[in-house]
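Notes continue from the previous slide.

Worked example: a multi-chain complex. Inputs as given:
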Amino acid sequence: MTDRKKVYLFYKKTDELEPKVQKIRELGKKYGFTLTERPEEANIIASFGGDGTFLQALQKTRFREDALYIGINDGEFGFYTDFSTENTERLELAMQSDLVEVLRYPTLEVTIDGEKTFHVLNEVSLRSNIIKTFVIDVFVDDLYFETFRGDGLLVSTPTGSTAYNKSLGGAIVDPKLPSMQLTEMASVNNNQYRTLGSPMVLSKQRELKLKIVQDGNDHPIIGIDNEALGIRHSHDISVRVSDRTVKTLRMKDNLFHNKLKRSFL
Ligand code: NAP
Ligand code: MN
């Protein structure tokens, strides 16, 4: 039992946060949790901070499929942060319960130039870092679909649908639907260039390929959740729904639609 209670804490060590984290460390000790400095041997990975910190914790610990991720916000609850440093009773309840339900969030697998593979929990974005438009050929399951010209394209997960995707007019997708959504950033549409123009949701069986047309004006930045990769010499990005999911705790009073209502309505 005890070896299921090894915890790795992911946070920025600031004077403000440290005493709050210390309080939670002591709480954990009381319930038999032990700490580890090595994320690869942890069963539980807890991030302290907002949704952005939760996303970073995942990237830094390489999307461990067998670990349970817990987001503890410093203040308000977020989309991935079901706990708060200000409400230790709630955390204490979760620590005591042997029957807490586990929730699994779909992720996307992003392969760059057939070599490097990344996982994302929010989205992968492909944008130009200069003021000029750039051009991307879009393929669905190897079928040439459209040529995009504009600021960029974004592929989001269901849980990422409430983030950048939403700002681009994408739909909100229930995290129980393993899927991905392609949205456009300011596409040029005229008699010469034509794209679908609507967000498109694709099933787990599909593969999306985004090929940057290299015309000397391509200066792409690829965003992997909240990290930017410089891909000056990469041009082939393939995206599919991954078999790997992110395990987190399900809190009965904080279902997806509670979060939507709290944040947007
Ligand atoms: P940030 O610029 O601080 O984040 C933007 C906001 O999005 C923050 O309020 C963040 O919450 C929130 N957020 C993150 N994931 C979310 C989700 N799944 N659903 C709803 N809101 C979410 O950057 P960050 O904190 O590192 O977050 C990275 C994310 O920001 C990216 O993955 C992207 O989705 C989003 N983003 C949005 C835009 C846009 O809407 N125009 C542009 C760039 C990036 P916290 O304050 O709790 O961190
Ligand atoms: Mn943030």
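Summary box: The chain is about 15% helix and 40% strand. The mean pLDDT is 93.
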